[in-house]
Every structure is written in C-alpha cells, then in structure tokens.
Write a structure and sequence with these properties.
241 residues, disordered C terminus, 6-stranded mixed sheet, globular, alpha/beta
C-alpha cells in the first residue's frame, strides 16, 4: 500500500515578474514504512513539494493521495483533521511554543487530537529522546539540539503513520545534527513510520532507502531503494521514482 501518491503534481505562483513554475508534473509513490529523501539546492521547491504532499498547500495541477485519501476532495478543515490523526512534522525552526515547557509542548499536540493520557504519553516520548530531566524547561532554556529532540518527541508521540521532515538539521551544527538524525531514524525503525524528508545535505539523505533529486520543478533519479538483505548492499532503481 502506498502512503503517499502524487500524480502530475504542479504548482505555479504569480509574481510581479510573471507566472513562476515551482513544480511541474511531479509523480511520486511512497510505500508504507519507507524512508525517502528529496534533495536539491536551496530554492528548488523542496519545501513547496513537502507542503503539497502534506496538504498544507493546494496544487495548481495534479493531485495527492495521502493514506488512501484524495486531498483534492477535502477542504482546509478536512485536510487538517486528516493530518491530526495520521501525520507528524519536524521543521528546521523547531516550531515550539515559547510559553510552554517541553512537556507541555508535547502534551498540547496530543490534546489537540484527543489522545488519552497525554501527560504520561508526552513524558514517555521525552524520556525516549533523552530529555526526561528537561521536562519543565522552556524552549529558551534548551539548546538547539534539545529543542529539535522535543520536536521529534512531539512528532512521534502521536504515533503518526507518516512523518514529514523539512530540513530537520538546518539550524544545528554538524555533530548535533548527526545525533538528531540518528535519533529520528531509530524512532522510524521502532515505530515503522513512513518518513519523507527534504534536505540539501546528502549525508542526511543517505540515511534513507530512496533518494530523489528535485531540480527544474521535476524529480530526478536514480533512486536508492534500500538494502538487499542477502548481500547487505544498496540497490538502485534507475529512473524509477
């Protein structure tokens, strides 16, 4: 079963200089449990594509099917309800509420979707990312790496089917970024969550089973499709995306 399907996806915006094509005829199929990276230069449209696939924005052409649901059949509220029950996010800028503690930031995400025992679940999620002793700290009292770990705990606490990550190490130094990515993919394996991340960092993308490059509004292969369990080697799928 495909968790995400994009069919002939396009996005155009009107600027003072005229109509700008950000994405053109993008096709993508992402299987349940898969980890896929979309790489490309800054300004190539990676975040735009992620927003369309998550239903945060609407395309000017084509459609997105998320966990079997055609997003074009939903209004903004319907897309929000779909995300609340099935989707997690990790952003470059952490997106933590500064007036709430680490525990409260994670609890709020659970309370919004009506999850039972949000306090216990949030505490367990923060302990899982190594922040059990930082529950009562506010974002301003946490390092960048700790804030991103809170964001990861918040994303996984709701047991999402799919996690979208937008430049998750963009505001972190290399060492901290590597630790955060290791944690992200450890939780991916533990929860069997599908991951789609966008990054300009090929080292981050290398953690994924499949890597696609976005340039000129199009996705390009070859794509890494995973590890052969018999040979232990990465296999590629040519131009298949």
């Amino acid at each position: 079963m495909y968790m995400v399907q994009a069919q002939k996806l396009g996005k155009r915006v009107v600027s003072p200089e005229g109509t700008l094509t950000l994405l053109d005829g993008v096709d993508l199929q992402l299987a349940a449990g898969e980890a896929c990276a979309i790489v490309g230069a800054s300004g190539s449209g990676k975040s735009t594509l992620l927003g369309l696939l998550a239903g945060l924005d609407v395309p000017t052409a084509g459609r997105v099917v998320l966990d079997g649901v055609d997003l074009s059949a939903l209004d903004e509220d319907g897309r929000a309800r779909l995300r609340a029950g099935r989707v997690g996010f990790v952003f470059q800028s952490f997106q933590l509420l500064p007036a709430l503690t680490a525990l409260e930031n994670v609890m709020l995400a659970l309370e919004i979707v009506g999850r039972p025992a949000p306090g216990r679940t949030a505490r367990e999620a923060l302990e899982r990312v190594g922040l059990g002793d930082r529950l009562r700290h506010y974002p301003s009292q946490l390092s960048g790496g700790e804030q991103q770990r809170v964001a990861i705990a918040r994303a996984f606490a709701g047991s999402p089917k799919i996690l979208f990550a937008d430049e998750p190490t963009g505001n972190l130094d290399q060492t901290t970024g590597e630790r955060v990515i290791d944690l992200l993919f450890a939780l991916n394996r533990e929860h069997k969550t599908t991951i789609l991340l966008v990054t300009h960092d090929d080292a981050v993308a290398a953690h994924c089973q499949r890597i696609l490059r976005l340039a000129g509004g199009h996705l390009h292969g070859p794509a890494v499709t995973g590890i052969n369990t018999q040979t232990g080697l990465q296999e590629t799928a040519g131009e298949n995306i």
